[in-house]
Amino acid sequence: MPSLGKFNQLTIEEICHEGAYLNGAELGEVFISAHELTPDDHEGQSISVFVYLDSQGVATATRKKPYAQLGDFTLLRVKEINSTGAFVDIGLDKDLLVPFNEQIPKMEQGRSYVIHFYLDKASGRMCGSSKLNKFLDKTPATYESLQEVDLIIAGKTDLGYKAIVNQAHWGIIYHDQVFKLLFPGQVFKGFVRKVREDNKLDLLLEKPGMAKIDTLSNQILSELEKNNGFLALGDKSDPVLIKKTFSTSKANYKKAIGGLYKQGLIDIEATSIKLKKAL
C-alpha cells in the first residue's frame, strides 16, 4: 500500500501537458509535475517517487530525494516561523511543519534541530517534532556487546553526548570516551558498550581490541610516509594533540606505536616517532 512521506513504486496512468497522474491506490490519483518526467516515461510504467501532500492537501509525487522520510530522525534547518509553527527545510518544494506543541526548545528561524518526521494521525498531515523522547525506546533494546550501530548525535549533557541508535533507541557516549569533535545531527557508526536496565545504551566511538589498534597503526604509518618518516607525537605527547591528529585516545595511540616499535618499523622518542626503515 502506498504511504505518505516515503518513496513508493507507482504506475503512470495518464500523461498530460501539465504532468502525469499516478495510481496511488488508497491515496487516489497522485500528481507529478511535467518537469519531473523524462522522455522515456510512458503510461503503464512503474516509477519510484516520494509522495507528500501539497499546500492544498493534494497527494503529490516527486523524484527529488528529501533529507528524511517518514519515521526518520535528522538535522533540519528552520526556514520560517508563523502562527502555526516552524517550517523546516526538508529538501522539497513544500517545507515540513513543526507545530509549536512539538518543539523543545522553542525553535528559532535559521537554526537547525534534530527532528523526527512523523504522520499526525488526527489531521493526516506530515509533521516534524523535536520532542524526541516520545518516539524512542518503544521496543526492547536487543543489542549484543560491541555490536556496530548507526548513531545520530542529538545533544550534549553533563555526562556526555546523547545519541539516537538505529533510529530507535537512546544511547550515551560518556565524556571519557569522546576523542573527536561531536555536534548535533552528526551521523556515523559506533558500538554498543552495554544495554542498561532502563533500556538505554552505553556507547563507544571505537571498538576496543587489536582490530582498532591495527587500523590506527596503518593510519600512523600513512602519516609518517606523508611527513618524510617523522611525526611529532611520541609516548609523552599531549593527549589533545593525539586526539586532534588521529581522533583516538592517548592509550590507544601508545598501544599502536608500541606495536609498530616491536615490529621494528619505528623508533619512539618522548615527543616524536620516526620510521626505522623504508616501508
Describe it:
By secondary structure, the protein is mostly beta strands. It has 4 domains: about 5-60, OB fold (Dihydrolipoamide Acetyltransferase, E2P), CATH 2.40.50.140; about 75-135, Nucleic acid-binding proteins (OB fold (Dihydrolipoamide Acetyltransferase, E2P), Beta Barrel), CATH 2.40.50.140; about 150-205, Nucleic acid-binding proteins (OB fold (Dihydrolipoamide Acetyltransferase, E2P)); about 210-275, Arc Repressor Mutant, subunit A (Orthogonal Bundle), CATH 1.10.10.10. The protein has helices spanning about 210-225, 240-245, 250-260; strands at about 5-15, 20-25, 30-35, 45-55, 60, 75-80, 85-90, 95-100, 110-120, 125-130, 150-155, 160-165, 170-175, 185-195, 200-205, 230, 265-270, 275. The strands form 4 sheets. Strands 1-2-3-5-4 form a 5-stranded mixed β-barrel. A 5-stranded antiparallel β-sheet has the order 8-7-6-9-10, with no helix packed on it. Strands 11-12-13-15-14 form a 5-stranded mixed beta barrel. The longest helix is centred in the last third of the chain and has 17 residues, at about 210-225. The protein starts with 6 loop residues before the first strand and ends with a strand. The relative contact order is 0.08.
